[in-house]
Amino acid sequence: MTSSLDGIRFSVLDRSRTREGEDGSVALRDTVALAREVEALGYHRFWVSEHHSVPGVAGSAPAVLAAAVAGATSAIRVGTGGVMLPNHQPMVVAEQFGVLESLFPGRIDMGLGRSVGFTDGIRRALGRDKDDADRFAEELAELLGWFTGTQTAHPQVHARPAEGLRVPPYVLATGEGASIAAEAGLPLVIGDLRGRERILRAIDAYRSAFRPSPWSGEPYVVIAGAVAVAGTEEEARRLLVPEAWSLAYSRTQGVFPPLMPAERIEELAMTPKQRDFFESGLKGHVYGTEEQVGDALERVVKESGAQEVLVTTSTYERGALLDSYRRLARVAGLTRANT
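^ that's the sequence the OP posted. Answer follows.
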């Protein structure tokens, strides 16, 4: 039987989440190990992220981590979801990805976001200002110009070895990201499977305003979000509990903590405000048995017209997370493609 998921690419974004009682080195090694596992399962690409001064996230240098992932794998595409361009000079980003593409030709993606440091202290440490996000479109154009040799901001300066290389760029949609992607003629990454009506409006606007570019001749939509698959619906829901609690804690305490086991979280005496944030954090995701998740993803893909699903799930139990990715690979037909 033909599924509406046939031909849809499935990829993974891992945030290198730390677990309670462990340091960042364990989380980073887990990210590399997970990349090898999902490559074997047939996923299309594996991305890493950028966060600064966050106790629960070890991934602060995505280009460095992407190099480790690419070196430990052989075929899966590797990239960032994303490099936060306002935190960096465009020439430096071009050089980093030029090095990556030179070392791992034809396998590197350049996912780019427009967020700046989360707090005033982080922004000061990065030498950035909150308003720097407003220059994203300008900095994006400069970055792409370093690859094509057409940037005019710094005449007679060249980004080596980036110039002349083709590293596919993707825009992560936050705020005006969708319209910037359309104007630049770049693929769009948008999520996270919640706020469906708002997301669909943004996707429609992106397609309507898309201007073909040397990077992409037509719109390309990657829809991102958490997907949890288990033997029962309740088991799948429990996979989402650790991340939901981290979000609730961060919104009430101002600190994004390492992941805790689901059973401990369910025994916590949460304040009413924490409970509201926690329950909200469990909504809008795709979870359940393989059949339930397949049906839900078919609806999401049909409504959005997305060509790709980027899965961003985090949970405390590593074995359960890998089992979820194995089950999702069956749902998506990835294992059939590899047998």
